């Protein structure tokens, strides 16, 4: 998304520069009127770029919020699964320990 935004920004700035240059070269009006038009065009382009930047910034904030929520959910599931697995491992080890104690007791009697 940022690659497209960067290219759009470059395209807009290039368009503004070319438009201003062509406007100056072929201006049928006085220089003062031409400068006002260029200034207004610059302000419009600046406002448009700021709007695009604000929209992109808001979109990125929304995506980061969603990613954070997804990550927190995944982390919670992982912790829950690990807790369950840990209990299974402990139960298995306790069973094996009991079996070994029983075997040891039988060997001690012989």
UniProtKB/TrEMBL annotation:
Q: Which InterPro entries does UniProt cross-reference here?
A: Desiccation-related_membrane, YtxH
Top-level lineage group? Bacteria
Coiled-coil spans in chain: 39-110
- Does the entry feature the keyword Endoplasmic reticulum, yes or no? no
Record-linked Pfam families: YtxH
Where, by residue number, does the polypeptide cross the bilayer?
6-27
Keyword annotations of the record: Coiled coil, Membrane, Transmembrane, Transmembrane helix
Q: Does the keyword Lyase apply?
A: no
Question: What name does the UniProt record give this protein?
Answer: YtxH domain-containing protein
């Amino acid at each position: 998304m940022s690659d497209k935004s960067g290219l759009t920004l470059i395209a807009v700035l290039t368009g503004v520069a070319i438009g201003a240059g062509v406007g100056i070269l072929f201006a049928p009006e006085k220089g003062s009127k031409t400068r006002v038009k260029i200034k207004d065009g610059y302000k419009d382009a600046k406002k448009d770029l700021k709007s695009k930047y604000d929209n992109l910034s808001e979109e990125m904030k929304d995506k980061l919020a969603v990613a954070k929520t997804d990550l927190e959910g995944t982390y919670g599931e992982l912790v829950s699964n690990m807790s369950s697995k840990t209990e299974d491992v402990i139960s298995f080890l306790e069973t094996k320990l009991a079996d070994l104690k029983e075997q040891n007791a039988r060997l001690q009697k012989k």
